């Protein structure tokens, strides 16, 4: 398709200056680009149509690692006292 209708990820490095020249750099154009980027991010990562146990298990694993990291010094002091 035309260069102006391509997404940034579809533009080759040599075509980048020409692609940037076709972009609208007004405040309204930039706001429209931000909206479009947020919409694609939301659809890809947040508004997932098919969920499963993987998302919940990743959330729980992240919580366990974060909790362990927060309490590491406390846990290491207790394990030292128990082993003495």
From TrEMBL:
One of its GO terms (cellular component) is mitochondrial membrane. The keyword Transmembrane helix does not apply. It comes from Calonectris borealis (Cory's shearwater). It is found in: Mitochondrion membrane. The lineage of its organism: Eukaryota, Metazoa, Chordata, Craniata, Vertebrata. PANTHER family: ATP SYNTHASE F CHAIN, MITOCHONDRIAL-RELATED, ATP SYNTHASE SUBUNIT F, MITOCHONDRIAL. It comes from the Eukaryota. GO terms for biological process: proton motive force-driven mitochondrial ATP synthesis. This is ATPK synthase. The gene is Atp5j2. InterPro entries: F1F0-ATPsyn_F_prd (IPR019344). Belongs to the ATPase F chain family. One of its GO terms (molecular function) is proton-transporting ATP synthase activity, rotational mechanism. Keywords: ATP synthesis, CF(0), Hydrogen ion transport, Ion transport, Membrane, Mitochondrion, Transport. Pfam families: WRW.
